[in-house]
């Protein structure tokens, strides 16, 4: 197998693993099930990832560029964040590594730790810095960032983990944007 074929096979395995972990959680997913869905031998998953734990860790590597959400005036922060959030939630059903981590957080301590570390590094801290750099004092910036972070995580859990519908994407985006903006403004 060429390096190009191996890389394509690895990506295909990860795509199916993300879909299955996101849809069913860690416990219900099997190496054989992922292998069958990806059209490969379970031995290949063991060779590439070392087994189910390694596959899970690889499938939950999260890289999300959040910088664009923080480019602009504080008065439009809610709209920018909401647009990025709704795009992520509706853009790739079942394949979002954050959803995989969110669903597995109750089953796997390392998933809970990975989710918390990701949110601290890629959401809470950049949001805090943005709010502070927008003129809020340190304490206000931390409190508002924490409120926005908790709100978005709560809505995400309700909608994506508990699978409780929260409306159409456009309605959800408008509601999220307005609520996030109120939290950012301290209302």
UniProtKB/TrEMBL annotation:
InterPro entries associated with the record: Homeodomain-like_sf (IPR009057), HTH-type_TetR-like_transc_reg (IPR050109), HTH_TetR (IPR001647), Tet_transcr_reg_TetR-rel_C_sf (IPR036271), TetR_C_16 (IPR041678)
Ranges annotated as DNA-binding: 30-49
Alphabetically ordered keywords of this record: DNA-binding, Transcription, Transcription regulation
SUPFAM superfamilies: Homeodomain-like (SSF46689), Tetracyclin repressor-like, C-terminal domain (SSF48498)
Transmembrane segments: none
Keyword Transcription regulation found: yes
Organism superkingdom: Bacteria
UniProt key word Calcium: no
Alphabetical list of PANTHER family matching this protein: HTH-TYPE TRANSCRIPTIONAL REGULATOR BETI (PTHR30055:SF234), HTH-TYPE TRANSCRIPTIONAL REGULATOR RUTR (PTHR30055)
Name of the protein: Helix-turn-helix domain-containing protein
Organism: Amycolatopsis melonis
